[in-house]
Amino acid sequence: MRERPSVSALAAGVRAGDRSALGRAITLLESRLGADQARARELLERLLPHTGAALRVGVTGVPGVGKSTFIETLGRQLTGAGTKVAVLAVDPSSTISGGSILGDKTRMQELARDPLAFVRPSPSRGSLGGVARRTREVILLCEAAGYEVVLVETVGVGQSETMVAGMVDFFLVLMLAGAGDELQGIKRGILELADLVAINKADGDNLEQARRARVEYARALHLMPRKSEHWTVPVVTCSGLSGAGVAELWAQVERYREVSTEAGEWEAKRAQQRVEAMWRAIEWGIMSVFRDDARVQGRVRELELAVREGRVAPDHAAVELLSVFRGP
Questions:
Q1: Residue 144: helix, strand or coil by DSSP?
Q2: Distance, CA of 130 to CA of 91 (rounded, Å)
Q3: What are phi and psi of 11, to 5 degrees?
Q4: Per DSSP, what are the bridge partners of residue 88?
Q5: In terms of Cα–Cα distance, which of 252, 73, 47 is closest to 151?
Q6: 3-state secondary structure of 215
Q7: Which residues, 6 or more positions from 320, have their beta carbon under 8 angstroms from its beta carbon?
Q8: What contacts 198, CB < 8 A, 6 or more positions away?
Q9: Domain span including residue 118
Q10: 224 occurs within a structural domain
Q11: pLDDT digits 0-9 by tens, 279-303
Q12: Burial class (CB in 10 A: 0-12, 13-18, 19+), 136
């Protein structure tokens, strides 16, 4: 059995940009074992002074919008210019088996082989919003390893967009032309988070339709409250397949960083995100302690059965379990 590296050796490997060391560090961070969690905290403490320099970008979109193809094209353009890029693709875990597909390295084959890129699929394991619990900390590890851009791809379900938007600097929303009125509800929710909207697959016979959709989305955004008085959300067209418009899109991301920094909003946003991350960690920690409590475990199966059979209201069962947890 191979001996595990010390925390100091792992930290040194991450700082040296060793992708293997970074992978092992992320695995340690995602472990649920108590001993591993203690080592992960020590690792983060060592690396924290070397974080914060990367541009963190969330990428989301409706199903079938072509997120992975777009991210690979964008990533290849950035690495082609000498920029180190990390891609964190949160992979949906099965609510039945707990397993996940972890197929993003397959979908981003060229980028995964690029020496300036690091592609890491992470299972959500049922975390709130489908976002891996440790995604924010994984971003920090990638920054410590010298990656200048960190792209976080959401699974595009439930609260994942809100969760990812709360841990990145810039939130990019990919849309399709003619996706149908049935998506209007989710579109509005996503658009409220957007720093830029891009109509993807603007190529071939779909080009003119994409241009019309750009105008429609620009009008819709004009009617919505602005996230910042210093930034008007652009709507652009692009093609992840051909690469058309992707460089221009990235120029808008860079412009956002300049405008936001000059307005004093960049660091203020990050500071608020750090505080929110603390409270999320507290919520997760309390829930873990609650579930592992022997008194709760002694009553939970009985109450779950009673709730399942309709003999006890869910709220009443929750109150009883909380009372058991608090004790006399």
A1: helix
A2: 8
A3: -60, -40
A4: 120, 152
A5: 73
A6: helix
A7: 299, 303
A8: 70, 172, 173, 174, 175, 235, 236, 237, 238, 245, 249
A9: 52-263
A10: yes
A11: 988 998 899 899 999 999 999 999 9
A12: buried
Tally of domains in the chain: 3
6 plus 115 within the same structural domain: no
The helix (run of H) or strand (run of E) holding residue 323 is: helix 314-326
Question: What is the token pair recorded at 277?
Answer: 């991350």
* Cα separation, 155 vs 164, whole angstroms: 10
93 & 125 share domain: yes
Cβ count near 134 (within 10 Å): 21
Distance CA 120, CA 162 (A): 21
Q: Whole-angstrom Cα distance, residue 200 to residue 239?
A: 5
pLDDT tens digit string along 117-128?
999 886 544 444
Token pair of 114 as six digits? 């690029």
Q: Are residues 1 and 89 in the same domain?
A: no
Q: Are residues 243 and 204 in the same domain?
A: yes
* CA dihedral (235, 239, 240, 246) positive or negative: negative
Task: Provide the mean pLDDT of the chain.
Answer: 86
Asked if 35 and 117 sit in the same domain, the reply is no
pTM above 0.70, yes or no: yes
pLDDT at 97 over 70: no
Q: Give the rounded percent of residues in the chain with a pLDDT score beyond 70.
A: 86
User: Rounded to the nearest 5°, which phi and psi values hold at 50?
Assistant: -105, 20
**Domain boundary pick from 50, 70, 85:** 50
Residue type, 286: I
